[in-house]
Amino acid sequence: MWGRLGSMVRKEFRQLAGDWPILFILVWGFSGAIFIAGRAISMDLNNYPVAVLDYSHSQESRELIARLRPPNFKIVSLLASDAELLGTLDEGGASLAVIIPPTFQRDVQQGRGRFQVISDGTQSQMATLAGGYITRLAGEYAVELLERRIGPAGRTLARLPQVDARVRMEYNPNITSAWFSSMLEMLNMITMISMLLTAAAMVREKEQGTLEQILVSPLRPAELFAAKIIPTVVVILALSPLGLFGIVQGVFHTPLRGSVLFFYAVSVLYIASVASLGLAIAVIARNLAQAMMMLFLILFPMLFLSGATTPPESMAPWMRYATLISPMRYYIDFGYQVLFKGNGLAYVWHDVLGIGLMGALMFGFSVWRFRKMLG
Amino acid sequence: MHSRVWAILVKETRELLRDPVYLGLSFVIPVVMILLFGFGLSLDVKHLPLVFEDHDRSRFSRDYMDGFVHSEYFDLITVTDDPRRVADLLRSGRARVVIDIPPDFGRSISGAEPVRVGVTVDGSFPTRAGVIAGYVAAINALYNDKLLQAYLSRQGGGVRAVLPVQMDLSVWYNPSLESKNTIVPGLLVLILMLFPAILGALLVVREKESGTIFNYYASPVRRWEIIAGKVLPYLGVAMIDYLIIYTASRWIFEVRFTGSFGVLTLGALLYSVCTIGIGLLISILARTQLAAMLITFLATVTPAFNYSGFITPVASMDTMGQFVAHLIPATYFMTVVRGSYLKGLGLGFYWLELAALGLYTLAVYGACWALLKKRIG
Amino acid sequence: MTQATFPDAPAGDGMRNAEGQQLIIRVTDLRKRYQRGRVPAVEGVSFEVRKGRVYGLIGPDGAGKTSILQILAGVLSADSGAAHLAGIDVLARPEAVKPLIGYMPQGLGLNLYDTLSVEENIEFFRALRQVPERRFRENRDRLLAMTRLAPFLARPAGKLSGGMRQKLALICTLIHLPDLLLLDEPTTGVDPISRRDFWTIIQDLVTNRGVSVLLTTSYMDEAERCNFVGLMADGEIIAAGAPDKLIAEMPGRLQLVGGALPQSLIRILEQWPETESVALFGEQAHLLLADDSIDVAARLQQAGVAQPVVRDIPAGLEDVFVHHVMRKRAAARALGADLAGLVADPPPMQDSPIRTEGITCRFGDFTAVDAVSLEVHPGEILGLLGPNGAGKTTLIKMLCGLQKPSAGRAQVAGLDLGARGARRALRGRIGYMSQRFSLYRDLKVAANLDLYAGLYGLPAEMRRQRIEGLLAGLGLAQYAERRTVSLPLGLRQRLALACALLHEPRLLFLDEPTSGVDPVARRQFWDWVHLLAQEGGITVLVSTHYMDEAEHCNRLGLMHQGRLVALGAPAELKAAAEGQGGPMVAVQAHDFAEAYQRLHARFPDAMLYGRRIQWQSPEPEPDIEITRAMLAEAGIEARVSRQGLTMEEAFVHFVEQAGNGRA
User: Fold this and answer.
1) Inter-chain contact A168–B118, Cβ cutoff 8 Å?
2) Cis peptide upstream of residue A311 (ω within 30 degrees of 0)
């Protein structure tokens, strides 16, 4: 059996070695693509566009406006009238409008200053974030004014009864989104390439008719499938360090706290699992177009529902359960826990179990389906 | 209608209706996607697992905790004073945020002294972590406000019992800030980008692979007739998809809709013509179906997702980002869609976007016409 | 010609040849290379086609035929030269010729849309060409009647048989009644009955409508149906002329030689300096000598052949082709280089390597193989002859264990296919070469062999020896490090044969091993098959759709629509068909068109073969009398003779007999 399998695996590598476009895509996937993802716009509040309508033109209003500065906010226009404000928000020129009334200075001095903020709620998450930030800014300004006023006579702010909630970000102190997004892209790449490479290798045998010649040889279906999976595993193991050490760690300085060896050990299992899914698709599909369509159908939900972009907590319960059949869900959890938090098997054993189970199921299904196809 | 265009149109329609792959790409996957993501996808960060490490166990610490427990954003997992247990919960991901209340919390508050609590947020998912920090700060500020007012009123005298600056925050267009109002219209833009483009990408390359392309090459049919005959059926498909998504958004997901259906439809029509054209252009240039599909996927979905304003407002992007945003049709249509659903604006507001889409379409089809050679080499 | 009476006939365009005859095509020094000039396709081709004639470009795959057709159809640019079509410069104004032409690309019905029905396909082409309603109806009904496709109007094109597809493709190409038909390999793999229908339509168009036809083919026998042929190899026309003239002008002498073991015969003949070509046909060899004064029998006796059999035989167009190619390429024959590497020691004779009883394969309600019973003897070459879709491939796949039979029993290489584990056990005992080239094109030749050596579990020490032996034995050694994709089809097929032989199987299945391969390479391939059978004692089951290849087999099974309609030695089959349906009556006349019109009215089966008219006649003597009288009365000078059946004619006879028997 090792002779047959070995010959088949050697053949797969020879084919891969001559396939420059695919090699290019592979290298790009583990370098350029991860770099771009790390640098891509994040979902932090960056330069959130603000329009200001200042009827007061006072010291106080200017002080308030001055607090709306990068990196969180960026004042994109200074307006003169309500009509302009309406237009700016409607057109989406600004996503937040600050309106300071003419009586602001007098009101503040009397201790009852009010100003208005209008937030464009069309992008709900950004609006939520922006609302939180500006509320905090306003609060800080108010306390500062208060302190300034009662300061000399009474106690300073530091002596007022206040709870100072110091937030410390565990694992990612400055919540650098590149740490997260570059790692996510690498895990996504491992997933997509495992599936696509294996499915394409199998469908190509079908389309070019080479499968037939293989089938009259003593090669067993399980050997054939193993011969498709092994090169995928090896190629990804060989190339992904480029992404992990070169880009994720090298360029973005993401700390790798856990055992990289452990990560790769489980990754072998994961790649084999997802490659089995690719094989299952290739066995069912009659041609490349069909295989691609099925890959679309499976990859989209897998990537969207991996728990990385949408928090599992906020998914509908049925969908949270549905993600249990996706090996990627386990892998994302596993990857971040091990690489980012430095957790060991005690914390991720259920992920490893999930990956292994789904992989065994897929491999079994592919072999069964293939045997059935042969009649 | 022009008979050669009609002939190609009828042929394309028949092939479409009889091929499961194209039927699937035309209708099944878009509908599955809108239902799946519409129901399942949510950007709301809610029900975050929270743990209190309470070393004080006083009336004051319980009062402080109440503010968090009663918010819909947090789900209280447990209250404990065992630091090792807390660390374990955070590590395993069973808790996303830990608030550490020091032993002297109650004493400080009652003594009108400032006190510090430690908030530890799991930073492995930065976006989520940022939102959590915001929630914590907001709830904490509410508590402080309460404390300050109580303190100041106790002090009495000349100091008024309110802060000198108050902010009135009003949210327009989506007052409840529900994420479905953001996601579902956004999906309309993405789906009408991806599937018409992919179908368009197969239009010519499929006939190249099968060899039937010679029927056009070797006959007197004109280039614009080929393009029109092939695009029109898929425009029909795109518009049916549009109506399905629109219907689902209004009556299944109950997304706010305040604008004009007519304007939205006009925008969808222009946008679909444009996205099919982009696919067609790729189809004319590519040699194999696989290449056409991969190029389409890379050239349409990623830019549309990142730069159309779906996630981040275009105005907040850097110069390069804004340049890319204005280069893709999805940005213009996103404005029309968001406006129609949530802002309730009429045609007058969108003539610029619609004109941009129109120009874009003209350019794309111009390129198709110029590059579609009735020759193989 | 009678074209003046047809309003749809092409208008005069002023293009004439030296003799003042009207031309439809004139091509001068046409050149085309692909991949920025690296891959030559057409290397300075010039020819003319007369209006209302059938011109055939004959040659193997890769000879440049398709490129010429595509350039003339205005769908491919040329690098240099000139091409005029009905007076229009195709290279300068490609769009201008498109209303005049009908172009049918290569491949069975490749211009059809599979999911569309027959009627919808025709309708699409009508609309694309904007054919006026009245002309469309008339033309459509006529074509449907001639092709007998009318009952299948509602069937999707994808579910038609190969022959029916190709006929539909022709209807679609003809629906606007073009002046010029450009047909690329229109009959490759098509069954003989459909081919006959096909040629009936072509002849009808040419004689009644003055349509001109330029077609390409790799069938030499088909070339004889053309008025004029150009033989192509490596991008050049190496010879051109009327088929009978080309044959008559061939120098040298073609002789059939026998009387010794074929392999020793072939080695002797190859060594003679005058030998232009030698090829094995069954037990005998065809020998072409440059010098026709040599006494072959005497020389053979000198070389130790006790009782040589030598007989002159008429040459065919294939011999002409081989003669010209050999002269051009001066190819050295690789045969006999190292036979030791090719075949192992003769094994003990097996009892019937293949025996089937009513083996059947059904896909849904379609019966691909219908109760076939046959027995193959050890060391024999059994050929399965039939068109695409006749069930040859499915039968071979069942015997290889690739397809499960729906009914019936089969014993292959001593294993009962129905038994548990038999299909696995079988794999080590048989060699299989599938219909399409099914090795890895992106791998080197040696890497392909290496893979299969591993798959068949050859021990490491044996592996190298066996691979080297096969590379040398099949003349592949110099290509070992070449990528398979860069090899011509003939060499690829040799590699496929090598892969099938690696594990020294006793039984070899070859599914259409020579499709599209040029005649020289084809003959060489068959030489190896003979050697394997005769020296290696290997039993060979081979399928083909080339009727002329039938002669290479010891016995032949004729297949049609899933059934085995006849089984026997080639000569027996021809004799049986002649005995049952009579011989051919052949008429050769100078004014063949006029003669054909008259004779066709009297003998509806009469067909035109270039300038010859012929039909099968159960009563040849009276028919010959009648024919002579008819032609004499019309004042047509003609030679009327009785001729034996070719394999194709015998095939048609058996198919029709089987059809009648069932109806």
Assistant:
1) yes
2) no
CA atoms within 13 A of residue B263's CA, in its CB half-sphere: 26
Of the candidates B116, B177, B317, the beta carbon closest to that of A127 is on B177
Sequence-ordered alpha helix ranges (H) in C296-383 = 296-302, 317-329
Q: How would you classify the pairing of strands C430-433 and C507-511?
A: parallel
In a domain, B172, yes or no: no
Cα–Cα distance for residue pair A250/A252, rounded to 1 Å = 6
Q: Inter-chain contact B151–A145, Cβ cutoff 8 Å?
A: no
- Average pLDDT over chain C reads 83
| CB proximity under 8 Å: A 18-57 to C | 18-19
Q: What residue numbers bound the domain in which B54 lies?
A: 48-155
ipTM, two decimals: 0.76
Whether A67 contacts chain C with CB within 8 A: no
Number of B–C residue contacts, CB under 8 Å = 84
- Residue pair A139/A67 in contact (Cβ under 8 Å)? The answer is no
Structural domains in chain A, CATH included, are: 2-40+175-374 (no CATH), 48-159 (3.40.1710.10)
Residue of chain A whose Cα is closest to the Cα of B144: A162
Note whether B83 and B224 are same-domain residues: no
Residue C571 CB coordination number (10 Å): 11
Residues B184 and B106 occupy one common structural domain: no
What does the block give as tokens for C308?
Answer: 């040589």
Measured distance CA(C296)–CA(C287) in Å, rounded = 10
In this structure, what token pair is assigned to residue B6? 């009609």
Residues β-bridged to residue A79? A53
Positive or negative: CA dihedral C498, C499, C501, C503: positive
* pTM across the whole model: 0.79
Residue B149 tokens, joined = 């007012």
Query: Which of helix, strand or coil describes residue C104?
Result: strand
Least confident of A333-337, B183-187, C16-20: C16-20
Q: Which domains does chain C have, with CATH numbers?
A: 3-241 (3.40.50.300), 247-340 (3.30.70), 354-569 (3.40.50.300), 574-662 (3.30.70)
DSSP-assigned states of every residue in C591-652 = SHHHHHHHHHHH-TT-EEETTEEEEE-SSHHHHHHHHHHHHHHHT--EEEEEEPPPHHHHHH
> Searching chain B, which residue's CA lies closest to the CA of residue A165?
B117
CB contact under 8 A, A217 and C443: no
Q: What is the pLDDT of residue C349?
A: 54
Cα–Cα distance for residue pair A276/A363, rounded to 1 Å: 5
CB A243 within 8 A of CB A326: no
Whether C205 and C176 have beta carbons less than 8 Å apart is answered as: no
* Closest residue, chain C, to B222 (C-alpha): C95
* pLDDT at residue C333 in the model: 46
d(CA B133, CA A132): 9
Question: Who's near A206: CB < 8 A, 6+ residues apart?
Answer: A282, A286, A287
pLDDT per 10-residue tile (average), chain B, 377 residues: 84 89 85 81 76 90 89 88 90 89 88 86 82 84 82 63 70 80 88 89 85 89 92 94 93 88 93 94 83 77 78 74 86 90 82 92 95 83
Q: Is A217 on the interface with C (CB under 8 A)?
A: yes
Q: What is the chain A residue with the closest CA to C503?
A: A217
CA C505 to chain centre: 28
Q: How many domains does chain B have?
A: 2
Task: Say how far apart CA C50 and CA C227 lie, in whole Å.
Answer: 10
pLDDT at C130: 87
Q: Which helix or strand (DSSP H or E) is residue C56 part of?
A: strand C54-58
CA distance A292 to chain B (A): 8
Q: Which residue has the higher pLDDT, C471 or C313?
A: C471
